[in-house]
Amino acid sequence: MKKLLLIAIVLFASLGLVACKEGDTTPTDPSVPTEPSNNGQRIDFGDQIIQKTSITVWIDDEAGEYMEAVIAEFNKVYPNIIVNHEQYGSVGAREMLKTFGPSGNGADVFQFPHDHLAQAVLEDLVYPLPTATKTKLEARAHELGLSIATLSYDESAKSFDPASPNAVERLYAVPMSIESVGLFYNLDMITTPAATFEDLFAAADVWNATADPGVFYLGTSSHWADSYFTQAIYSAFGFYPFGENLDDPSAVGFETPEAIAALTWIRDQLKPRTTGTGNHNSVSAGANFEAGKIPYIIGGPWNHEAYQAAEGLNYAVAQMPSINGNATQTFAGAIMAAVFPVLLVPIKAVSF
């Protein structure tokens, strides 16, 4: 209201300046043209007249440098959208949005891991992205990331079964990064990383025979019961859960010959070389790798921060080794961003 009042006052003042000159009371003949004059200061009212929109973004970026650069690039295209970045961890963002979103105190754009997507859809926390947005992303984003962010969903039945009568395939989020596990190795101890588990185990047998207790040649940054890490092993034996099309929740498949062969290999080949007589955990493997005591550890991108901060550690990452001549195929995940649907102008958040 103050801005409107200010504009009105200025307009009326401008009219007064045009209508008469100081000290001149002679009526002006409107039919006689006059030369325009501007003895005052030029004022740009653009910023006052064009309405700005503000959106809140929850992205896991503690330093804020990444988001600062992203917002700067975004505002080159959309200068009238103010982006407020708030630091939230991606894992907890969905739960936070369930609490603060409905009251209008949540985020318009939020980040989360891919395995939260289906639940977020069921909880009405994500806005299906327009087809035009998906078309743009197909030319820029990784195909696997888009596939993970795309769901077939039947809203009436609350079903993700593609065969459901009213299922519609839509893109619900934008993949920001794709992550999977790999073979991390110490560059000061390993020149060429092992390409096969057979070669890895042969070297491990020599190392472990004289190593200090618990300092195993190969370790894991998680544990050997974590399917995110063991799927690579299952795949080399031809085992995949949930049926041929990976969509049958009743077909877990651990009774199949492929699964039994994989589990037997884990018990007889992997376990003795990574835990000895222990259970599923690699004893202190992460700390040993950071300290430069062991040459190999299986980890993921979430380990880079700790490894890069480890003093004196020079490392690289290789593809997971093959087993019995069969390639290993790891699970892939994605960190993605979605739009919260309770917005007056959701397209502003979609643009971001």
Describe the protein in words.
With 352 residues, the chain is of the alpha/beta class. It folds into two domains: 51-178 and 335-351, 3-Layer(aba) Sandwich (D-Maltodextrin-Binding Protein, domain 2); 182-331, Periplasmic binding protein-like II (D-Maltodextrin-Binding Protein, domain 2), CATH 3.40.190.10. Helix content is 35%, strand content 16%. It has helices at 2-19, 46-49, 65-77, 93-100, 117-122, 131-138, 143-148, 197-210, 227-236, 257-274, 285-290, 304-309, 346-351; strands at residues 53-59, 81-87, 109-113, 150-153, 168-171, 174-179, 182-186, 218-220, 296-299, 315-318, 333-339. The protein has a five-stranded mixed beta sheet, with helices on both faces. A four-stranded mixed beta sheet has the order 8-9-7-10. A two-stranded antiparallel ribbon has the order 4-5. Strand 1, helix 3 (65-77) and strand 2 (81-87) form a beta-alpha-beta unit. Helix 9 (227-236) packs across helix 10 (257-274). The longest helix is centred in the N-terminal third of the chain and has 18 residues, at 2-19. Residues 1-27 and 43-49 have low confidence and may be disordered.
In short:
This protein has 352 residues and is of the alpha/beta class. The protein is 35% helix and 16% strand. It has a 5-stranded mixed beta sheet, with helices on both faces. Strands 8-9-7-10 form a 4-stranded mixed beta sheet. A two-stranded antiparallel ribbon has the order 4-5.
Q: If you average the pLDDT, what whole number results?
A: 83
CATH architectural designation of the largest domain? 3-Layer(aba) Sandwich
Give the strand order of the largest sheet, numbering strands 1, 2, ... along the chain.
Answer: 2-1-3-11-6
Helix and strand composition category: alpha/beta
CATH topology of the largest domain: D-Maltodextrin-Binding Protein, domain 2
Distance between the termini: 29 Å
Q: What percent of residues are in strands?
A: 15-25%
Report the oligomer: single chain
Low-confidence stretches: 1-27, 43-49
Instruction: List the domain count as a whole number.
Output: 2
Q: Could you state the order of secondary-structure elements as H and E?
A: HHEHEHEHHHEEEEHEHHHEHEEH
Main CATH class of the largest domain = Alpha Beta
How many β strands by DSSP? Answer: 11
Task: Determine the number of helices (DSSP H or I, runs of at least 4 residues).
Answer: 13
In CATH, the homologous superfamily of the largest domain goes by the name Periplasmic binding protein-like II
Q: Summarize the biggest pleated sheet.
A: 5 strands, mixed
